[in-house]
């Protein structure tokens, strides 16, 4: 899954069997020049990195524990960057000395004061400052929040069928429902400044009022006014056998 950073919504989804390797997923990405892609360190693939370099795509990831690199030079580091947690800004060569795919990259050594750990980020971008690179990688956590949001608000604890088709239908239905609710939530937030709806509250509200004929967006912006103007479009659904006296 690829999540678009600006709205925390999936833009590319591929459902595969559980035993399939996630690493192969990046080969299916067709990114336009100027894109920034952020990924976990498990997606280490020097051939793919080189391809993105040629396509003018910026990539940011963490250094894999088994990666081999050689320090080329120290890049200038401002004092304010150092005070913010950036310990080193290096130009390195990734890969073994005999590796034909060996290439230069930028490595940022950052100390996370909250979790008390040192992180090493690698990227092909030499223009942005080191702290910005660290912040870009931090945005990768949005994909974990997306999975958490889906698990909390939709029924995925069990599946309605045990064959591949049934499972895919339930997963796609969940992703579509999440997309629609997120669009409504963001639109309501842009149109009013008072009440902010959480994803859980909004999903629960829609679940309880699926058969209520009311303008959802107007209700989210001003619930009291929307309910006062509510008129049941079908006041009499059940037919009478005998005319009332």
From TrEMBL:
A GO molecular function term, named singly, is: transposase activity
List the GO biological process terms.
DNA transposition
* This protein's name: IS4 family transposase
Alphabetically sorted, this entry's keywords are: DNA recombination, DNA-binding, Transposition
Keyword DNA-binding assigned to the entry: answer is yes
Q: Which InterPro entries match?
A: RNaseH-like_sf, Transpos_IS4, Transposase_11
Q: What sequence ranges are listed for the domain Transposase IS4-like?
A: 2-177
**What is the source species?**
Deminuibacter soli
- Extract the coiled-coil ranges from the record: none
Q: Which family does it belong to?
A: Belongs to the transposase 11 family.
Q: Does the keyword DNA-binding apply?
A: yes
